[in-house]
Write a structure and sequence with these properties.
The chain is mainly beta. The two termini are 22 Å apart. It is globular.
């Protein structure tokens, strides 16, 4: 089954009772969180719940050896979304059928893991392809109406990403994960992108966990989600404007602690590099172009001052047998490239609520609501003596703090099996309106803007989906634009469980 292939940490750990107890407590709390807050497809529901259950089972003491069974179970073909072939036959009076002949092979399923290695060290391979077709009335779609690096970026067809996932157990102490994405930009140029590649502990005491490598920063909800797990075709405006087209991610290390409480409660602290295009509001040189009228540099006088700090706290509560609430607060602090002693602060708060009736079928029907708010305070340096600010008519810029905020709110309704209707509203604007008026014509990155996006998703199976989305986009001084996108997505092999 594809779900069992997702057990990244399902290995036989050392037989220390304290470690086993700690891991079992952690995984059981994660199971309760998953059961309440799963918001995506039926595929992800089954994959992630089964993966965590198998990790708990692996940590339990092994049962005593059982006597050999005389008659083998009868393999039966799996129904869509049901058990994988090879499972035990139902009990009853009918005699068991003969096992398959030697050398006979079962048919291949997209859910079957593509596995390398075995035992305590293995790697599962998975592939997700995401494509979009459509268009917009906007001039300059890429970086204009569409701020995300994986958003549909041109009239016609867009390869939003072909993502290869490599995930598995390194040994009884670590698990690893890597996501490599192939993309084609609006100019037709192909490139590979290392989205994530990290190593994570699975046996530290006191509910502690360490992750190290290249990873998406734990800021809010949308930043840690890969595009194929989004509820919409494109990323929210606040995320694209403050965290950057590719999200906030960089090499570094993260420490997390799961509090021993009756509800899910976890603290995170990440320390990462702050330079490059994946740290958009920090030491990003913006491709050599000025930002907010200032030239940018990735240089800092002290390497320790060049680090990015990102704390986060998240907690989940069961409001009732059918409702769950997950809330979190996040922050990111680090230097930016507009001066030698300038920094950026980003704050965020997020909320996720889900209702699912006790008598659901395959996760349907359901209603979920997700919202995030972000505030960015960008300390902009003064332009150097003798420099000339583009668009400022000879005006030199003093040092100042530019404040912007934004939010999005979205609701999804799984109104019948495999069908989800969703609606999202986005809004971004500067707090200090007077500070940006002189650059309106040359730097639209702080213009007030709101967007309204309804969509409809049809899950053809656990491994493919179609999504139709419309965007009504209102950008101050640039007018109103309309966009329509049709997205198609497929998945092959096993894929690592997504963070909620």
């Amino acid at each position: 089954m594809i779900a069992s292939a997702l057990g990244l940490g399902a290995t036989a750990l050392p037989a220390q009772e304290t470690n086993q107890s700690s891991q079992i407590q952690q995984l059981q709390q994660q199971i309760r969180q998953l059961q309440a807050t799963i918001e995506q497809t039926e595929q992800q529901h089954r994959q992630q719940l089964e993966a965590l259950r198998k990790q708990v089972e692996a940590l339990q003491p092994p049962p005593p050896p059982a006597a050999p069974v005389a008659l083998p179970a009868t393999p039966e073909p799996a129904a869509p979304g049901g058990p994988a072939p090879g499972g035990p036959a139902p009990t009853g009076s009918a005699p068991a059928a003969a096992p398959p002949a030697a050398g006979e092979k079962k048919g291949w399923s997209p859910a079957d893991p593509i596995q390398i290695g075995g035992g305590r060290a293995y790697m599962n391979l998975g592939l997700v392809g995401t494509f979009a077709a459509g268009g917009s009335t906007a001039h300059g779609i890429e970086g204009g109406t569409q701020l995300g690096g994986h958003d549909p970026n041109q009239n016609g067809f867009t390869v939003q990403g072909i993502e290869a996932n490599f995930a598995g157990a390194v040994d009884p102490y670590f698990r690893g994960n890597a996501n490599v994405v192939y993309e084609i930009d609006s100019r037709g140029e192909s490139f590979l992108e290392l989205e994530e590649a990290w190593l994570e502990t699975v046996s530290l005491p006191a509910n502690l966990q360490v992750r190290a490598g290249q990873f998406l920063t734990d800021f809010g909800r949308i930043n840690t989600q890969h595009p194929h797990s989004w509820t919409f075709v494109d990323s929210p405006l606040a995320s694209g404007r403050f965290l950057g087209p590719d999200g906030l991610r960089n090499p570094g290390a993260r420490l997390s602690w799961l509090a021993p409480l009756p509800f899910y409660s976890e603290l995170f602290l990440a320390v990462q590099n702050s330079q490059g295009e994946t740290a958009n509001s920090f030491r990003n040189d913006n491709g050599g172009e000025p930002m907010f009228g200032r030239p940018l540099s990735q240089d800092t006088g002290n390497s320790l001052n060049g680090l990015l700090l990102a704390p986060r706290y998240a907690a989940s509560f069961d409001l009732s047998d059918t409702q769950t609430l997950l809330a979190g607060v996040s922050a990111a602090f680090g230097p930016n490239g507009s001066g030698t002693d300038t920094d950026t602060q980003i704050y965020g708060a997020d909320l996720f609520w889900k209702w699912k009736p006790a008598r659901h079928h395959g996760g349907f029907p359901f209603v979920s609501w997700q919202t995030e708010a972000m505030l960015r305070r960008y300390q902009a340096g003064a332009t150097a003596a003798g420099s000339y600010t583009p668009g400022a008519s000879g005006v030199y810029l003093p040092g100042e703090t530019l404040a912007d905020w934004g939010l999005y709110s979205q609701i999804a309704w799984g109104f019948r099996k495999d069908w989800v209707a969703a609606l999202r509203g986005d809004y971004v604007l500067p707090v200090d309106k007077a500070a940006y008026e002189w650059i309106l014509g040359d730097d639209p990155s702080r213009l007030p803007r709101w967007r309204f996006s309804p969509n409809l998703t049809w899950y053809l199976s656990e491994f493919s989906k179609l999504r139709l989305q419309y965007n009504y986009d209102d950008r101050q001084q640039l007018g109103i634009d309309h966009s329509v996108w049709l997205q198609f997505e497929f998945s092959l092999g096993a894929h690592a469980a997504h963070k909620f």
